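Reviewer 2 asked us to include a model.

Predict the structure of this chain.
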Amino acid sequence: MTFLTRNFWASDEPRILGLTPRHAAVHYLALPLLLAFLSGWPQVGRTMAWPKYHALAFWAGMSFGGWWMNDLTTRLIAPRLRRAGAPLLLTLLAGVFLAAVPSDLVLRAWVHTYYAAFPHLPLDRPLPGLDLDAAKFLSTHFYGFLTWPLLNLGMFHLWKVPCFGYCPPVPPSPDHSAVLIHAGRPAFMAKIHASAQGNVRALSAEQHYLRVYTDCGEALILYRLSDAMRELGGLGLQVHRSHWVAAGAVQAVVGPKTAPRLQLAGGVEIPVSRSFRQSVEMAGFLKAEADYTTAQTVFHSR
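Predicted model (structure tokens):
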């Protein structure tokens, strides 16, 4: 199965709800487990007199139930709030507050379920009912109101993890004269998995991400197209606002003359925009006889 392979977990592509596999594992598993440990190990609340392993299991259920409900609610409202220009903090706060009532029902159900499965556990406080007491409700969810936005903001700003469609800013390279690292590789190649390392054929911007096409495959990384083009220098040409093609990488020109597309090895097609048409034509990229196999100017990144 794909998700059990090393390449899947080493991938820098957003394969799981806009997150890389590693980021998704931290967000959906590691963080809820951390919160469960912080409550279960000291055996807080109704688990004070329980065995420690029961306290950890109980709080794991509470933590995952609340965290995943917050995630679902925030994911539903985030697109509309982003379009309205709302900052990430406001979206996270709106998500956790709107999730409070449904997650409260989920958590109450978990309490009943756990006691039903282990009736021998001490019951030092009554089981939750359907009544809603405002003060008790706020005290129950206050912890979640704090941890949900703080942990997500920490992931976003410190680890540069995309969050519900919000993409962290990619800092520009401070010194573009020194962006080429060892063995002549451009800096962005360090973000690409070894299986896709090879001759750079093309670059395509996809919102805040950069898709890198090489002769060994392709990869999607968090990077600026402008920075990547500067790192590659004059080894290719920008053919569109969102696309760059390496010199000699064009195998054929397809499509109408008014909207040509550059076809690379493997069938990848890169559009040429009207504003770049003249420079692309002068560089010889639109010649049908373009020969990729004999080109000597393709950048070798290994």
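Strands lie at 200-206, 209-214, 217-222, 236-240, 243-246, 250-254, 261-264, 269-271. The chain has eight helices and eight strands. We have added this to the supplementary material.
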